[in-house]
């Protein structure tokens, strides 16, 4: 069983994000970068699947600048076997990323591809679905539980939908995207960190893949959210009702 896990380098969710004055992007000076939390959940599920099966290989792949190797090393320290970094300085949209991942999948021939359901920086929630379409593979998105059949030919996935939970059975190979409640990722142990230094991390220039990554969509401008106004304390229900009627105008 070979499992491919795509991870993305994103700003730390706890970091304070500042938009550039011209709105062209965010200020990255001294910004801490981490594995996208949903991608971390996807990696944890891949590692648990390997442990349940008693063997296999978990391969990480990331697309981005050379600095993304730091997040791949973190994934290797958690327990992944090896990693691939597709190196590019380009700003890629979801289709560009999916096209690159499709090439890697063709070369690696995994049984399952795990991804986070979305990245916390752009919240697009598109790459997994686009990858499934490009490969013509079955997909199960927003997974909160994954179980493999005894013959390892199918997966039963419980997914979170608007109306509650839905359970689907899909043949492998397949694309599965991880939701928040799928698991709780492990921390990298000290022995894992030491072992990660010796694990393979292969860098592949984007040009070597022959993929057209011309963006189909582009960000015109970023603007920070408006500051919230301070709330008001009221002394009585009557005063609250009056303010809802005269100021908020919701009743």
CATH homologous superfamily caption: HUPs
Enumerate the spans where pLDDT stays under 50 for 5 or more consecutive residues: none
The coarse silhouette is: globular
What level of helicity do the residues show?
25-40%
> What is the helix/strand order?
EEEHEHEHEHEEEEHEH
What class, by secondary structure content?
alpha/beta
Task: Provide mean pLDDT, rounded.
Answer: 93
Biggest sheet statistics: 9 strands, mixed
Q: What is the CATH architecture assignment?
A: 3-Layer(aba) Sandwich
CATH overall fold name:
Rossmann fold
Query: Rg to the nearest angstrom?
Result: 21 Å
- State the CATH class: Alpha Beta
Beta strand %: 25-35%
| Whole-number tally of structural domains | 1
Which labels suit this protein?
single chain, 251 residues, alpha/beta, Rossmann fold, nine-stranded mixed β-sheet, 6 helices, 11 strands, 26% strand, globular
Compact summary:
The chain is of the alpha/beta class and 251 residues long.
Written account of the structure:
- The chain has six helices and eleven strands.
- The longest helix has 17 residues, at 37-53.
- The chain has a single domain (2-225), classed as HUPs (Rossmann fold, 3-Layer(aba) Sandwich).
- It has a nine-stranded mixed β-sheet, with helices on both faces. A two-stranded antiparallel ribbon has the order 2-3.
- The protein has helices at residues 37-53, 69-78, 94-108, 127-135, 190-196, 237-246; strands spanning 2-6, 9-11, 33-35, 57-64, 82-87, 112-116, 139-148, 154-161, 164-171, 174-178, 201-205.
- It is 27% helix and 26% strand.
- It has 251 residues and is an alpha/beta fold.
